[in-house]
Amino acid sequence: MSRIRAAIVGGSGYTGGELARLLLFHPEVEITQVASGSRAGQFLHSVHPNLRKLTGIRFCRPEDLMPCDVLFLCLPHGASAGMMEHYRTLAPRVIDLSADFRLRSSTLYQRWYGGEHPATHLLGEAVYGLPELHRAELSEATLVSGTGCMATASILGLAPLYRAGLVNEQMPLVVEAKIGSSAAGAAPGASSHHPDRSGAVRSFQPTGHRHSAELIQELGVLRGQPDGLTQSVAFSATAVELVRGILVTAHVFLNEQIDEKVLWRVYREAYGREPFIRIVKERSGVYRYPEPKILAGSNFCDIGFELDAAQRRVVVMAALDNLMKGAAGNAVQAMNCMFGLDETAGLLFPGLHPV
Amino acid sequence: MSRIRAAIVGGSGYTGGELARLLLFHPEVEITQVASGSRAGQFLHSVHPNLRKLTGIRFCRPEDLMPCDVLFLCLPHGASAGMMEHYRTLAPRVIDLSADFRLRSSTLYQRWYGGEHPATHLLGEAVYGLPELHRAELSEATLVSGTGCMATASILGLAPLYRAGLVNEQMPLVVEAKIGSSAAGAAPGASSHHPDRSGAVRSFQPTGHRHSAELIQELGVLRGQPDGLTQSVAFSATAVELVRGILVTAHVFLNEQIDEKVLWRVYREAYGREPFIRIVKERSGVYRYPEPKILAGSNFCDIGFELDAAQRRVVVMAALDNLMKGAAGNAVQAMNCMFGLDETAGLLFPGLHPV
Amino acid sequence: MSRIRAAIVGGSGYTGGELARLLLFHPEVEITQVASGSRAGQFLHSVHPNLRKLTGIRFCRPEDLMPCDVLFLCLPHGASAGMMEHYRTLAPRVIDLSADFRLRSSTLYQRWYGGEHPATHLLGEAVYGLPELHRAELSEATLVSGTGCMATASILGLAPLYRAGLVNEQMPLVVEAKIGSSAAGAAPGASSHHPDRSGAVRSFQPTGHRHSAELIQELGVLRGQPDGLTQSVAFSATAVELVRGILVTAHVFLNEQIDEKVLWRVYREAYGREPFIRIVKERSGVYRYPEPKILAGSNFCDIGFELDAAQRRVVVMAALDNLMKGAAGNAVQAMNCMFGLDETAGLLFPGLHPV
Amino acid sequence: MSRIRAAIVGGSGYTGGELARLLLFHPEVEITQVASGSRAGQFLHSVHPNLRKLTGIRFCRPEDLMPCDVLFLCLPHGASAGMMEHYRTLAPRVIDLSADFRLRSSTLYQRWYGGEHPATHLLGEAVYGLPELHRAELSEATLVSGTGCMATASILGLAPLYRAGLVNEQMPLVVEAKIGSSAAGAAPGASSHHPDRSGAVRSFQPTGHRHSAELIQELGVLRGQPDGLTQSVAFSATAVELVRGILVTAHVFLNEQIDEKVLWRVYREAYGREPFIRIVKERSGVYRYPEPKILAGSNFCDIGFELDAAQRRVVVMAALDNLMKGAAGNAVQAMNCMFGLDETAGLLFPGLHPV
Question: In the predicted model, is pLDDT for residue B1 greater than 90?
Answer without folding.
Answer: no
